[in-house]
UniProtKB/TrEMBL annotation:
Residues 24-245 form the Aminoglycoside phosphotransferase domain. The keyword Protein biosynthesis does not apply. SUPFAM superfamilies: Protein kinase-like (PK-like). This is Thiamine kinase. GO terms for molecular function: kinase activity. Pfam families: APH. The keyword Lipid metabolism does not apply. Keywords: Kinase, Transferase.
């Protein structure tokens, strides 16, 4: 018998399971939603209850569903079981595996292969518009916060990088846009899968590459390996310029995301305020370095 609250299981569970599911345990690691490992008959499933502040985080659940259908068909994600029409929850099959590490043998080439697969998926009806995304975040940020003024200063510095990145763009494709360690599963079958596609949208693939470089703190050798394997050719100076501009833009959107979470009370801890301040400093320094 499950020791967890029955409220965790959606009341319309009959739509996706022949027997009433029970909760095995919560799944930790996600920053936005709550996820649970379920037992449903002979199957293990993952139930994801969507964040209560999805609107403030500018999440497009319809686009997520479209991306998941494509990714599922291509075998790049946890197999999709059910998507609630009201977009309150999502059910996928559980993938047996562990976390991905950049230091693993062949890890970066494997990640590059996953990226190539994602970026080759069919288009969806959503596009990552940097200005719109930032404007949406700003509407939910507390202007009384200590970090507000420095964040506004950073906003002005970032504005030149957006058109510069677009000038160098070679086109857009479907991107996951949130390939953090918690959203990658190195499965027991040897494959690498991406989960939590709620930020999926059409965009410049170098935004996704910039995210990986920053979030996994890749050194120059690792960046070179990732880029070369992803591009399937030697890197050029233009490639590095694109990456630099998108690193600034990603760092900026990332700090806005944390500022929204802090402002809405979801992550209102001193450590988060410190992370916001430190990220503002790091992105500002990167912007200055690119400007020379």
């Amino acid at each position: 018998m499950s020791v967890f609250s029955p409220d965790i299981i959606p009341p319309d569970w009959q739509r996706w399971s022949a027997t009433r599911p029970s909760v095995i345990k919560p799944l930790t690691g996600g920053l936005t939603n709550r996820s649970f490992l379920l037992q449903a008959g002979g199957d293990q499933l993952v139930l994801r209850r969507n964040s209560a502040i999805s609107a403030a985080l500018d999440l497009n659940r319809v686009a997520e569903y479209q991306a998941l259908l494509h990714a599922d068909n291509a075998g790049l994600c946890a197999p999709l079981i059910y998507c609630d029409p009201e977009h309150q929850y999502l059910v996928t099959r559980f993938i047996d595996g562990g976390g991905w590490s950049k230091s693993g043998a062949g890890a970066l080439p494997q990640l590059a292969q996953l990226l190539r697969g994602i970026h080759a998926l069919p288009a969806i009806d959503a596009q990552l518009d940097i200005e719109d995304k930032a404007a949406s975040y700003w509407c939910s940020i507390d202007n009384r916060a200590d970090f507000y003024a420095p964040l506004r200063t950073l906003d002005k510095k970032v504005q030149r990088h957006i058109p510069a990145a677009r000038e160098l763009s070679a086109g857009i494709c479907l991107c996951h846009n949130d390939l953090l360690a918690t959203n990658l599963i190195a499965a027991a079958d040897g494959n690498l899968y991406a989960i939590d596609w709620e930020y999926a949208a059409m965009g410049d693939p170098f935004y996704e590459l910039a995210l990986i470089v920053i979030e996994y703190a890749l050194d120059q050798r690792q960046q070179q390996l990732l880029l070369a394997k992803y591009l399937d050719r030697p890197t050029t100076s233009v490639d590095w310029q694109r990456l630099d501009h998108w690193r600034v833009i990603y760092g900026y959107l990332s700090v806005l995301w944390y500022a929204v979470q802090w402002s809405r009370g979801s992550m209102r801890q001193p450590a988060i305020a410190g992370k916001i301040t430190n990220t503002i400093r790091d992105v500002t320094e990167l912007s200055f370095a690119i400007d020379g």
